[in-house]
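testing teh design pipeline on a random one, pls ignore if ur not involved
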C-alpha cells in the first residue's frame, strides 16, 4: 500500500488536505445546521443531561434511553472539532434515528484545547468510558457501541487500543465501533494553523498516534471516510484500517461516495441516508 507523503507537502497543500474547514469552504453552514437541529432535538426528546463523569468543567455526558425498550444497546458518541471546538450540545441531533430504532445514545463532552492538552483529553475519554462501563447495569444496557467523528474517531480509536476488553460483562461489553472520517496521526497537525489552539508538541503528537496502537478488542470495527474528502485525509482512514485489519479481521473499510467531511456525519446520523441504515443494522446484528 502506497503511503501518502504528507511530510513533503507545502504549507497550503497541508492545510487543504488536513484542515476540513479549508477543504470544505462552507463548513460553517454544516455546523450551524447541526446546532439548529440539535436545539430542536432537545425540545422533542427526553434525556438525562450533564451527567458528570469527572471533575473538569466539560467532563459531562447526556444519556437518552428509548421508550419501552429493556436492555437496549448503548451507542456512545464522541464529537469532533479538532480537539479544540464543538460541544455535545451541538450534536444532540445524532440521537434521533437511533432512539427510533430502540438504541440508547450517550453523547460525550470533554474539555478542549488549549485549556487542556490532547493527552489530557484522551485521559478524560478513558475516564468517561470507565464510568459508562461501570454504570452499564444501572442504565440496563445490553452492551456498548462506540462511534466518533473526526477528532472523535481518534478518541474512540484510543479506547480501542487500550486493554479494557479482557474482563467485560455482557452489559459492559464493547460490541462494535464506528469511526467516521478520523484523524489518526496527530503529527500532521504540527504544521497546521489550528495547532495554535491545539498546541501539540512532538511528544504529545507521537504519544497520541493511534497508527501505532492497534485495537485490542476483537469486536467488529467500521472505518468510514467521505469520497469527496482530500486524498491525504482519506489516506488516514485507509492506513488506520490496515492497522486494524492486521489485529482484527472483522474490519469494514468504506469510502462513502458523495460525502465530504461534514456531510458524512449527516449520512451517518440521518435516516434519509443508506449509511445510517447500515450502521443501525450493524448494531442490531451484533446486539
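output:
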Amino acid at each position: 500500500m502506497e503511503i501518502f507523503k504528507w511530510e513533503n507537502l507545502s504549507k497550503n497543500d497541508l492545510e487543504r488536505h488536513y484542515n476540513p474547514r479549508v477543504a470544505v469552504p462552507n463548513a460553517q453552514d454544516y455546523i450551524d445546521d447541526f446546532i439548529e437541529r440539535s436545539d430542536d432535538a432537545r425540545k422533542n426528546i427526553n434525556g438525562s443531561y450533564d451527567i458528570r463523569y469527572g471533575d473538569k468543567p466539560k467532563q459531562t455526558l447526556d444519556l437518552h434511553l428509548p421508550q419501552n425498550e429493556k436492555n437496549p444497546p448503548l451507542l456512545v458518541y464522541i464529537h469532533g472539532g479538532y480537539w479544540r471546538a464543538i460541544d455535545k450540545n451541538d450534536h444532540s441531533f445524532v440521537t434521533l434515528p437511533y432512539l427510533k430504532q430502540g438504541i440508547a445514545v450517550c453523547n460525550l463532552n470533554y474539555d478542549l484545547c488549549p485549556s487542556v492538552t490532547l493527552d489530557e483529553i484522551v485521559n478524560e475519554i478513558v475516564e468517561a468510558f470507565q464510568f459508562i462501563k461501570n454504570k452499564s447495569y444501572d442504565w440496563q444496557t445490553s452492551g456498548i457501541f462506540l462511534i466518533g467523528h473526526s477528532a472523535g474517531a481518534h478518541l474512540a480509536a484510543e479506547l480501542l487500543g487500550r486493554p479494557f476488553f479482557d474482563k467485560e460483562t455482557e452489559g459492559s461489553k464493547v460490541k462494535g465501533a464506528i469511526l467516521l472520517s478520523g484523524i489518526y496521526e496527530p503529527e500532521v497537525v504540527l504544521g497546521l494553523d489550528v495547532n495554535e489552539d491545539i498546541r501539540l508538541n512532538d511528544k504529545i503528537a507521537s504519544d497520541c498516534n493511534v497508527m501505532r496502537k492497534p485495537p485490542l478488542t476483537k469486536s467488529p470495527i467500521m472505518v468510514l471516510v467521505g469520497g469527496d474528502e482530500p486524498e491525504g485525509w482519506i489516506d488516514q482512514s485507509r492506513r488506520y484500517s490496515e492497522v486494524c485489519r492486521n489485529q482484527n479481521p472483522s474490519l469494514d473499510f468504506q469510502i462513502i461516495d458523495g460525502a465530504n467531511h461534514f456531510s458524512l456525519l449527516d449520512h451517518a446520523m440521518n435516516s434519509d441516508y443508506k449509511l445510517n441504515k447500515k450502521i443501525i443494522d450493524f448494531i442490531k446484528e451484533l446486539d
